[in-house]
Structure formats: C-alpha cells, structure tokens
Amino acid sequence: MTKIHIPTPLRQYAGKEPTVEVKAGTVGEALAGLLGKHPELRRHLYTEDGKLRAFVNVYLNDEDVRYLQKEATAVGDSDTISIVPSIAGGSGVDAAAILGRAELVSPRVLQGCCFSCR
After folding, report:
1. Angle ∠(24,57,51) on CA atoms, nearest 5
2. CB neighbourhood size of 62 (10 A)
3. Residue 2 φ then ψ, to 5°
4. Cα distance between residue 85 and residue 76, in whole Å
5. DSSP character for 39?
6. Residue 84 in contact with residue 6, Cβ under 8 Å?
7. Where are the alpha helices (DSSP H) in 1-101?
8. Bridge-partner residues for 2, per DSSP?
9. Tell me, what DSSP letter sits at residue 83?
10. Which of 53, 39, 44 is nearest to 8 (CA)?
11. Where, residue-wise, is CATH 3.10.20.30 in the chain?
C-alpha cells in the first residue's frame, strides 16, 4: 500500500498519525483515500472548489508532483507520498532586528502563514 506522510501541523486532523497507508493507483486516489479515512483534512488540503491549496506541496518519493502529472501521477505499493506545507510567517520587525535590515519590514510580511490561520 502507498504510504502518506502527514506533516505535524495536520496530524491533529489525522488521528495524530504520522503516516497513513492507502490503496491507490494515482496520487489523487491516494489523497482521496486519505480523506476517506480522515475527512477533517479536506479543508486544510483543498479549496472549496476542490483544488489542492496553493500552499500544499505534494511529493511522490522525492519528486514534486506538480512537475510530474500532478494528481494523475501513478503510484505503486512501495511509493511514499509526502504532504509538505509551505512555510512562511514570522514578523518583519523581528527579522529586521535580527538581521539589521530595515528593508525587511513590510506590511505584507505576514499573510496567512499556516494551516491554523485558514
């Protein structure tokens, strides 16, 4: 079965499991299987119109599926899918203070930085 690695911020919606195994032929089927087992993950992974959120990166083994065949990418029983959230956030003021660079201060520095903000 295909193994899906769940990132730490999402484990609370996946029964606190670090990995979930699903039977699937494609990345999309694997993610659907994951949602079948843990439906609370849907709002964190997909938009309301059913598209994978822009800040959610999906890797098959070590390959970003955006550069393969996206959710149509074939998977096998020995494959591993990793869900990797984009990391952002912090404070521009703090970064500027640490780095001594005032140009890092911007009102746009912090905009929806993590899964809990959604």
Report:
1. 70
2. 7
3. -75, 135
4. 23
5. G
6. no
7. 27-37, 42-45, 92-99
8. 22
9. E
10. 44
11. 2-86
Statement: the pTM of the whole predicted model exceeds 0.70: yes
Helical (H) or strand (E) element with 97: helix 92-99
* Spatial separation of the C-alpha atoms in residues 8 and 1, rounded to whole Å: 22
High-pLDDT (> 70) share of the chain, %: 73
Query: How crowded is residue 44: how many other Cβ atoms within 10 Å of its Cβ?
Result: 20
Q: Which CATH superfamily is domain 2-86 in?
A: Beta-grasp domain (3.10.20.30)
Q: Which residue has the tokens 């439906």?
A: 39
- Residue 87: pLDDT band with limits 50, 70, 90: low
Among 50, 52, 3, 47, CA closest to 23:
3
Q: Give the Cα separation of 25 and 5 in Å (integer).
A: 17
Which two tokens mark 77? Answer: 């029983």
CA distance 76 to 31: 14
pLDDT tier for residue 89 given thresholds of 50, 70 and 90: low
